[in-house]
Amino acid sequence: MSRTTAPAPADRKDGATASAEGLNHGLKQRHLSMIALGGVIGAGLFVGSGAGIAAAGPSIVIAYAISGVLVMLVMRMLGEMSAANPASGSFSVHAERALGPWAGFTAGWAFWFLLCVAVGLEGIGAAKIMTGWFPGSPEWAWVALFMVAFCATNLAAVKNFGEFEFWFAALKVGAIVLFLGIGVLAIVGVLPGTDSPGTANLTGAGGFFPHGSEGLIVGLLASVFAYGGLETVTIAAAESEHPVQGVAKAVRTAMWRIALFYIGSMAVIVTLVPWGDKAVVEKGPYVATLDHLGIPAAGQIMNVVVLVALLSAMNANIYGASRMAGSLVSRGQGPKALGRTFGGVPRPAVLVSSVFGFVCVLLSYWRPEDIFVWLLNTIGAIILVVWFFIAASQLVLRRRTEREAPEKLVVRMWAFPVLTWVALAGMAAIFVLMAREEGTRVQLYWTGGLTLLLAVCGFALQKVRAREPQDA
């Protein structure tokens, strides 16, 4: 058996199953479906999309559509590989099988670093909302409270994580569905107290492309990174009751629903609210839209939703980081102590991932002008690096699976290999666009530096391990 081939789950006396990495299969299909939907719906959509609208104007709809197509292709490829070989290391395991241990090491630890820093950022954002409700309370205390709560949640059985994430995601999804419903009623002119805006906001104030192609490019870059988070469902699938069927169904349903939520939301917002309205950036596009329609207490309602989105992301990212670290260690690519499981949970990995996230929060207070900014720039393009490894791995593994075990291809990439190459070309184009834009160029450089460092370490480890049997 190869180092990356997982054996069939072992039966347990309690009726649950355990994976090759010692993880329990405690997640149900409803958990996976909501993790797939909720993992990507965060503050980036509820608040951060305002900057994209300010840059691209109404053409932000096209930007989200283009990036949405790319994300759908990436998730289809990842779904194909994860349904054929479910593993908590997800794309890291696939990269190792396809390209070698160095690739699994690079993709896995880069993603772990991204998730840990994101945990800190989400904690800071949630704390700011709480200090707004409770003036005078220290932000660090709220961050510490959230970190302890979700660390404890993830230290317990995986079904606890699943339940938390299920209800968090359900609230976020419900909020977006309600927003889209209200928005459509306002657009057609049947919402009480409002008149249909027609196409005035889409074609006025500079037209559909008010800042031309440059504005569209900035909006495109903003939209690409807003979709990050979908990958968590393929990590969680390895701990579900039926990993193959679970990941296949979750990926299939999540892709079009998320595209609808993102693209639909942007279309509603720019149709109802003038894109140049400063409130779109200052308050966030959802709050600005509800205020524009005269919905009572819109700001506080959306603050609750955004808080839930941030807490949900913290919960999911601690989970994803711990499982990725545990998977890497189980393959000999990290400190052995991190890979130990207790009750089917990699508790050392959960603790280390949580502590690293809290350290990032402390750095935001101690060194906001240098180290914290460096952290932000370093994770700027990691999701694109991960997507690149996914596409490159799928090119190799699809042909291998067709030869060796075609029955495992429960999910198939569309029009293979043409659309896989199209996705790779799209990623390359985004890298080029990032290099052109001053605001994203430094992120590209720092992310590139981190990726190169990890690749060198991965190659070195691969060489050392390759010599081990000869030296024995």
Automatic annotation (TrEMBL):
Keywords: Amino-acid transport, Membrane, Transmembrane, Transmembrane helix, Transport
Mode of membrane association: Multi-pass membrane protein
Organism: Streptomyces exfoliatus (Streptomyces hydrogenans)
Cellular localization per UniProt: Membrane
Pfam families reported in the protein's UniProt record: AA_permease
Keyword Membrane: yes
Domain (Amino acid permease/ SLC12A): residue spans on this chain: 31-441
Membrane-crossing segments per the record: 34-55, 61-78, 99-120, 140-158, 170-191, 216-238, 258-275, 295-314, 349-366, 372-397, 409-432, 444-461
The protein's name: Amino acid permease
Alphabetized InterPro entries for the sequence: AA-permease/SLC12A_dom (IPR004841), Amino_acid_permease_CS (IPR004840)
Principal subcellular localisation of the protein: membrane
PANTHER family tied to this protein: GABA PERMEASE, GAMMA-AMINOBUTYRIC ACID PERMEASE
